[in-house]
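[job 4417] fold queue: 2 targets
>>> target A
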Amino acid sequence: MSRTDDLQQRFQAFAGRPGRVAFAPGRINLIGEHTDYSGGFVLPASLALGTWTVAAARDDRKVRVLSEGQHETEVFALDIAPAAATKRWSDYVAGVAWALQQAGCKLRGADLLIASDVPMGSGLSSSAALEVSVAHALLAVAGASLSPLQIARVCQRAENEFVGARCGIMDQFAATHGESGRALMLDCADYSWKSAQLPAKHCWVVANTMVRHALAHGEYNVRRAESEELTAYMHRRIPQRTRLAELSIAETKELMSGLPATLASRLRHIVGENRRVHEAYAALDSGNVALLGQLLFASHGSLRTDYEVSCRELDILVDIAGAVPGVLGARMIGGGFGGCTLTLIEAQHVETLLAQLRLNYVQSTGREPATYICEFGGAGGMLA
């Protein structure tokens, strides 16, 4: 039985009628961490992992949603507003319904069943996969449509203004624009993008620390506030620049000289990471996999030291990977303070890497990491 047929059966048991099936992928971000919300550059690739939403219209103005991952059912009215957010998983669904209507879409009430194989809080963008999948499903049952970019922006607004997480647009954009086997270099300021083929003879391995430190959400918003403070400072000192990603090395040093040490470090990361995105895209485009790996290690060092969003568990996984033959690079991915690392490795050495990650991480932390060899997929949309 196909995944779609299985979901249809489970939806029939839940809602008593057939539904439409939407899918949206998770993503890895090869490089460009904590750059999207300041209008910088990122280099994501969409995964085969993702979130499915099965939907059928209701005759009233309510949305009833069953999350198989949470083993819970929630009901909310379509006229819900951000003030009614509950700080629970259902806010992502309600937020998308709210944001779609804010964008002018006339929605119908719906029954929704949600299933996902993207680990929550892992840095693989489970929230954006959920949002984009739900958006496609709600649009389909309402007979409405938006462009991929409009869907991405609606879902980002849902997360920013309803959920309260001040994310950039990278995750939602990857879920709506992904190309199988290719990475997208996205300019988060104007949404222009181009793609490059991923290495054919190498694998990308995600390792989950199995921890999510409590300060992650709050510290993410702190970093975004620091980024906005740096942008305002730049506008005062170098008004011809519109965003931090445009700063030259000389301009960066000039700005750092007038900043407190913490903000100077944040600026060094943001400017350096944007530069690494361009270098990584060029490395992909030219097939220079060795350089790509070096940039991954450099990115992790900057995230650990300058942006201070790593943690002991992430550093341990990166160090373990760095000692394995055939590994070209590794770094933390996602917001930080737990979640996952990403390792680029020659395909013939993957099993050695997996074994070393399990053995040494257990010895160091008492936990066994979940690991995933990345398989890449395309953009989200309706499957049935």
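>>> target B
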Amino acid sequence: MNKIVLSRKFKRAFRKFSRRNQQLQNRIESAINELSNDIFNPSLGTHKLEGKLSGLLSCSCGYDCRIVFSIETDEETDEIIIVLLDVGTHDEVY
């Protein structure tokens, strides 16, 4: 199980985005749970980003909902840490 860390920007975007639609909140929480279990689960559609977001990854949590994140490794414990950076529609996060 991977450790999940929420950035300040992600928390703010999550509150704003989930206010629009309660079902989206459930899908986002489900995607986060799946990320902690398996980053590359096919249902998430995890992929590397290019351009100004090069080095980051994104996964899908619904038709037009994306989570942008980075993968880091704790140097002391070699534990994988997933840092959630942003959430929103395709146009909002890219």
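[job 4417] complete. Note on B: The longest helix spans residues 22-37.
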